[in-house]
């Protein structure tokens, strides 16, 4: 299970990077472990997983310069030499400003309001999974509670693309009745985005 851990950025020496002149978004990435050195990081569509761009890891860092035409939620995927079929991945919001990410044992995205909301969702799911492991519940017992968490997060983000991302990524977990109720609660803007 991937851990989404928020920690004090100052304590690890991460600094905020300045905006890239010339428009678009720049993603500044840092690896928290160096076993991925000289590997590629892929920028993918968050829903189809189609590769949009790639870059090479160098000195534990990577950078993407992304044009304004690639707005939305994208997925960063990093393949570990020992786990080629299980890439380390991180959703990231592109198009609202420069983004800083950390990938490895710790996964973190920050730098813009929507990336902060996305990080809040990742932290909430991580906390949920940790709590469920302590309770030693079965998958059948966990499923409805996880659906409730998803619904709560979608409603918190019904006015932005983070809510849309959560819905599209996890809609199979909702019954048709729950989907209908959720879409009604989220309103017209949300409804247009999920079509």
Could you characterize what this model shows?
This protein is α+β, with helices and mostly antiparallel strands. It is built from six helices and eight strands, in the order αββββββββααααα. The strands form two sheets. The chain has a four-stranded mixed sheet. A four-stranded antiparallel sheet has the order 3-2-5-6. The longest helix has 23 residues.
Quick recap of the structure?
The protein has helices spanning about 10, 115-135, 140-155, 160-170, 175-185, 190-195, and strands spanning about 25-30, 40-45, 50-55, 60-65, 70-80, 90-95, 100-105, 110. The protein has about 200 residues and is of the alpha+beta class.
Question: What's the helix and strand layout?
Answer:
Layout: H1 9-12, E1 25-31, E2 40-45, E3 51-56, E4 61-66, E5 72-78, E6 88-94, E7 99-103, E8 108-110, H2 113-135, H3 139-156, H4 161-170, H5 176-186, H6 188-193
Parallel strand pairs: 1-7
Antiparallel strand pairs: 1-4, 2-3, 2-5, 5-6, 7-8
Helix pairs in contact: 2-3, 3-4
**Which structural class should the secondary elements be placed in?**
alpha+beta
Strand percentage, roughly?
15-25%
Shape: globular
Structural Rg: 17 Å
Report low-confidence residues grouped into runs of 5 or more.
Answer: 1-21
Biggest sheet record = 4 strands, mixed
Number of helices: 6
Feature tags:
195 residues; alpha+beta; 4-stranded mixed beta sheet; 8 strands; 37% helix; 24% strand
């Amino acid at each position: 299970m991937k851990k989404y851990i928020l920690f004090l950025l100052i304590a690890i020496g991460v600094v905020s990077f300045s905006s890239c002149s010339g428009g678009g978004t720049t993603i500044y990435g840092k690896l928290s472990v160096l076993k991925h050195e000289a590997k590629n990081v892929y920028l993918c569509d968050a829903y189809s997983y189609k590769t949009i761009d790639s870059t090479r890891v160098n000195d534990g860092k990577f950078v993407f310069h992304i044009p304004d035409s690639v707005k939305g939620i994208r997925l960063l995927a990093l393949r570990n030499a020992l786990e080629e079929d299980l890439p380390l991945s991180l959703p990231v919001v592109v198009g609202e400003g420069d983004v800083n990410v950390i990938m490895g044992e710790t996964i973190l995205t920050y730098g813009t309001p929507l990336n902060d909301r996305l990080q809040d969702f990742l932290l909430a799911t991580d906390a949920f999974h940790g709590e469920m492991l302590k309770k030693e519940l079965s998958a059948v017992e966990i499923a409805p509670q996880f659906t409730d968490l998803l619904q709560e997060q979608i409603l918190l983000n019904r006015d932005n693309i983070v809510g849309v991302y959560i819905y599209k990524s996890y809609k199979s977990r909702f019954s048709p009745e729950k989907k209908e109720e959720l879409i009604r609660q989220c309103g017209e803007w949300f409804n247009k985005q999920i079509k």
